[in-house]
Amino acid sequence: MTRFSFSIAATDGKARTGTLSMQRGDIRTPAFMPVGTAATVKAMKPEAVRATGADIILGNTYHLMLRPGAERVAKLGGLHRFMNWDRPILTDSGGYQVMSLSDLSKVTDDGVTFKSHLDGSRHHLTPERSIEVQRLLDSDIVMQFDELVRPDVSADKQREAMDRSIAWARRSRDEFDRGGEHAQRAAIFGIQQGVLDEKLRKESADALIDIGFDGYAVGGLAVGEGHEAMLGCLDFAPGQLPADRPRYLMGVGKPDDLVEAVARGIDMFDCVLPTRSGRTGQAFTRTGPINIRNARFAEDQSPLDPECACPTCGTYTRAYVHHLVRSGEILGAMLMTEHNLSFYQALMADMRSAIADSRFAAFRKHFLDKYRAG
Length: 374
Prior knowledge:
Low-confidence stretches: none
CATH class of the largest domain: Alpha Beta
Largest sheet: 8 strands, parallel, barrel
Shape: globular
Number of strands: 16
Mean pLDDT: 96
CATH topology of the largest domain: TIM Barrel
């Protein structure tokens, strides 16, 4: 099988459906990647994650380099063998964690020096080290190391972070290409930055295209800018990236965010929301999210979502799941997470079918009207 290829089977407006092919398997797009931060999608066995329809998952460079350590994972046969997931894995670069832990870190042109949130130990993460860690994990899709900033920072800070991300993109690409056998079977994506500024985004995209990547991510969103501002950026940002390469929106999002982003040309997503919400009692349904902890579900004998075909909805009632979650039982988190991931994967499958059948606009309106009305 080819190292990496992306084919678009159909388009409907800006929405696209296709296949990203890699040695460890095909990824159907639009695709949602469950987040396996520390070599696990929380509350789920890998085979259960696959059963929801997931073709690929995400692993986290920052967390895995701290614990159990990238060198240890490599010694144990790589991340796939370590966690028993034989399909593609995308690893993020650690850039988001550096931003979210900004009180513990210092950024220079060379890289980032930070204190571990686990034990206070000091670490230095550079583009070269980020790529090395991802290589040790045996990632299938490697992300460049980047710097992202929140939208409320000054214009000077926005440009500085964008320029630094471009410089780090070149260093990331060079280090990836030095990866020998790993580089021959993996892919590397560049990350567009520029916050909400169309000119900065275009400058970033042009520089990344000049360097050359297998795919391109829209980074720096879902960090506090708000839903409408995010969609405003997505009205132009994906179109600045190559149409023949996959476009990945990092860290997004809610079900209605996914539909709106696909309508604007995005192919890939990741987000902790379905798993985190499952553990805290929020279930996603076709008529909007529900808080299963609410007393009104205590004697409700319907499934979490009557339109859902997942094992949880086919077996258990809202009343039972309500009892589990309110009681703090582990099974409650497991069932809620299974349902939420299944809901997300079913949504992606529905969008793929709607695009292929040239009815995406009608699907989008029907889904959003029903979801938001609930």
